[in-house]
Amino acid sequence: MFETYEEIRQWREETMASVVDDHRQLNAFHDQLMYQTLRIAKETIESEQGPPPAPFAFFLMGSAGRSEQSVWSDQDHGIIFEGSSPCQEYFLNLGAEISHGLAIAGYEKCEGNVMASNPLWCRSIESYKKQIHDWLNEASWQSLRNFSILFDSRVLDGNDDFLLKVKRESFAVLEDHTHLYSRLVDNFEFIKKGVGVFGQLLPEQRQGMKGEIHLKETAYFPYVNALRILALKKGVSAAPTLDRFEILSYSYPFIEAYENDFRELLKFRLRYKKQAESYEKIHLLPLDQLSKQDKQQLKYLIRRGQQLFAKSKSVLKEESSL
């Protein structure tokens, strides 16, 4: 049993090489690292402030929420609790301790502050439900982005039903306001072009990234965004993209043809990024490291993701106009 965050970091460094070749094993290991960090954080806060004032759940968002982390990952997490807002201060302190522990264990703090130490991501069940209504009523770019971040979530510790209640609220609002699906599609639609008109891979032009392709933005997001919008339409609460492929294939048989492409993309990412030394570099792939065959495979996977997103958008449009 680990007693300090530093011991968890050491376990991570000693074990990572043995799980890095398998997507599922890698993400199961990330879950264990975060669960052990959470355990120490809970013990620390309980020793200082007593037991939690209400039942709660700690949940993951982003790539962790989808069980799609690579070797390095930043923090995306929240807390949801029963009861009223007076409990919030306790859970904000717990969120801050969790974030502190995860940073030591090897997970960089989220630049966008999507962490349980932020009141936006540390709320009661009823407060989250109200926030869902506010975000969808406002329907601005940022509010819809926050909504989609929360939707890609799963409970790591605590009662799954707390988060499920919030997701069910989301489905009900969208059913009553179907025009929001097209707004969400527009919000997801920004896809960085990875392949040029002549079939060439397009590297980054931003400072410090020249000659590299941003794998997450160009190749990975189109698959994730397509399955998210279909999951919202069909009321599927599961967050992992692979789970969404499996569940949604009954309603949308066309997606089956793309599932293996997504699996290949996950393998491709691990093959090239398992030696990455930091989170900053985990999504950037220097094109000069790729063989001719790998460049062809990457171009194919990028195109397939774009086709899947376009097809999903078209199907959603047809359903919304019925």
From TrEMBL:
InterPro entries: DUF294_put_nucleoTrafse_sb-bd, GlnD_Uridyltrans_N. CDD domains: NT_GlnE_GlnD_like. GO terms for molecular function: [protein-PII] uridylyltransferase activity. Residues 20-139 form the Protein-PII uridylyltransferase N-terminal domain. Pfam families: DUF294 (PF03445), DUF294_C (PF10335). Residues 180-308 form the DUF294 domain. This is CBS domain-containing protein. It comes from Halobacillus alkaliphilus. The lineage of its organism: Bacteria, Bacillati, Bacillota, Bacilli, Bacillales.
